[in-house]
């Protein structure tokens, strides 16, 4: 009985810890979603890229963050919608960095906080 309880507690801990570790960082992703949100989105890095005001290093970091975001599992909502949103972000950011006309506006739209948070946060 006591042993069974210990095993059950141990299993529960593994499941819980696993979930926490998995919660917002994909296996080969460099940044957790929390980091990306704080530095990339709230911190204004993505907005800076969208406005065409980011330097090369910032552009590189922004791309790394968006690529990590796509690799991270969504906190909530469907994988499909997450993939769609994160892919749109990567594509718009790439196009913006490549200097494509209108791409910055697309990036601003793709980076809309509420649209994504409503579904995935
Ligand atoms: C592509 C989807 C997406 C977009 C766009 C997005 N967010 Fe988020 N954000 C998330 C998800 C998912 C979470 C929840 C992360 C978690 O708890 O694992 C989150 C969480 C956050 C958090 C809490 C971070 C923490 O855990 O402390 C902040 C702050 C935040 N977002 C700010 C922003 C701002 C500001 C913008 C717009 C400029 C924005 N986000 C745009 C998906 C997005």
Give a topology summary.
Elements: H1 2-23, H2 33-42, H3 45-50, H4 56-71, H5 79-97, H6 103-110, H7 113-120
Helix pairs in contact: 4-5, 5-6
Heme C binds at residues 23-24, 33-34, 37-38, 41-42, 74-75, 85-86, 89, 111-113, 116-117, 120-121.
Can you give keywords for this protein?
mainly alpha, 7 helices, 121 residues, binds heme C
Written overview of the protein:
This protein is mainly α. 74% of the residues lie in helices and 0% in strands. The chain is built from seven helices and no strands. The radius of gyration is 18 Å and the shape is elongated. The model has no long low-confidence stretch (mean pLDDT 89). Heme C is lined by residues 23-24, 33-34, 37-38, 41-42, 74-75, 85-86, 89, 111-113, 116-117, 120-121.
Task: Tally the structural domains.
Answer: 1
- What's the total number of strands? 0
Shape: elongated
- The DSSP helix count reads 7
Backbone structural class: mainly alpha
Heterogens: heme C
- How large a portion of the residues is in β-strands, by DSSP E? under 5%
Poorly predicted segments: none
Q: What is the H/E order?
A: HHHHHHH
Rg over CA atoms, rounded to whole Å, is 18 Å
Major sheet, described briefly? Answer: none
Distance between the termini: 40 Å
Mean pLDDT: 89
In which range does the helix fraction lie? over 70%
């Amino acid at each position: 009985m006591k042993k069974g309880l210990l095993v059950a507690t141990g299993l529960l801990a593994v499941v819980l810890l696993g979930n926490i570790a998995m919660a917002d960082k994909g296996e080969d992703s460099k940044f957790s979603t929390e980091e990306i949100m704080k530095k990339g989105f709230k911190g204004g890095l993505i907005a800076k890229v969208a406005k065409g005001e980011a330097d090369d290093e910032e552009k590189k970091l922004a791309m790394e963050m968006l690529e990590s975001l796509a690799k991270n599992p969504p906190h909530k909502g469907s994988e499909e919608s997450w993939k769609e949103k994160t892919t749109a972000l990567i594509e718009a950011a790439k196009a913006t960095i490549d200097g494509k006309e209108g791409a910055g506006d697309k990036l601003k739209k793709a980076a809309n906080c509420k649209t994504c948070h409503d579904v995935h946060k």
